[in-house]
Amino acid sequence: MKKRWYHYLWIWSLLYFGMGFFNILFAWLGLVSFALPLIMAIGFGHKGFCNRYCDRGQTLRALGQLGFSRRRDMPEWMKGRAFRYGFMTFFFGMFGSVLYTTWLVYSGAESLQQVVSLFWTFHFPWEWAYSGAVSPWTAQFAFGLYSLMLTSEVIALLTMLLFRPRSWCVYCPMGTLTQLICEAKGNKQES
Fold it and tell me: Cα separations (Å) of 183 from 7, 45, 46, 55, 119?
């Protein structure tokens, strides 16, 4: 298979997580991963971002080609609408929690929590990644978004290890949302 430029977008994932590890404010760049699929689905009526330009999808593809995937089929329940919509609802609920916590810090009701949460349960101190150069609410959003992105990355990697390389893409919250947008627009997915 001929390599195209977008096959190297896995580098963006490495940069994102690496830069966020050392300076949490880089976590704001994760909004690109939220905005671009929506822009393409709304503007062009297809899932071109998911199918070609998603850095996570390209990371999973590359790792699968290196032999890190068992290449087994996912259970049918993980492919079903109930699981996909349920996971999307949960995921966006967690994003809402990030926004709410950010609001609490902005309004002064809570103080900045310099932690990264993995699986919304395990909290790791991360104070070295924030210098205090910006307002606390800005950093709080970055900590929350980085936590959300890191958790979903770990889930994607676990799914890749257990099943086919891009199994995450079957139930990715952004992929599910863009599919709903494309269906609402009456367009089919781009293959």
Answer: 27, 9, 9, 24, 31
In a domain, 191, yes or no: no
Domain contains 163: yes
91: in domain: yes
pTM exceeds cut of 0.90:
yes
User: Does 17 fall in a domain?
Assistant: yes
Query: Which is nearest to 172 in space by CA: 54, 6, 5, 45?
Result: 54
Structure tokens at 113: 């929590």
Q: On the CB side of 115, how many CA atoms lie within 13 Å of its CA?
A: 13
List the domain range (segments joined by +) for residue 150. Answer: 5-185
pLDDT digits (tens, 9 = 90+) for 105-121: 999 999 999 999 999 89
